[in-house]
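Session log. Operator J.P. requested a structure for one protein chain; no other inputs attached. Running the standard single-chain path with token output.
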Amino acid sequence: MYKPENVVIKDDASDSWEDTDLFKKRFTESTPGEMIFASRDMRGWSQAALAEKLGNSPHYVSDLENGRRAVSKKMAIALGKVFECDPSIFFEF
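Structure written below.
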């Protein structure tokens, strides 16, 4: 499970969170909701901020993060654009 204290921040600004070994390891062991939370948390975004970027409500984001709502292919693509990462971390294509 994602825990902020397990994240190692590198000084190299060209490395994104999604390119780290920890992220890749967590990707294979985490749910889509945990990946959304981790990606959002690493950027310091609130659920409301992410919801605004996605054009949805904070409640919708909460449902995604807590597994009460499945991540659709369309939403995975939107998340990939917002987080500037491969959408497959949120959805099995």
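Operator note: The mean pLDDT is 84.
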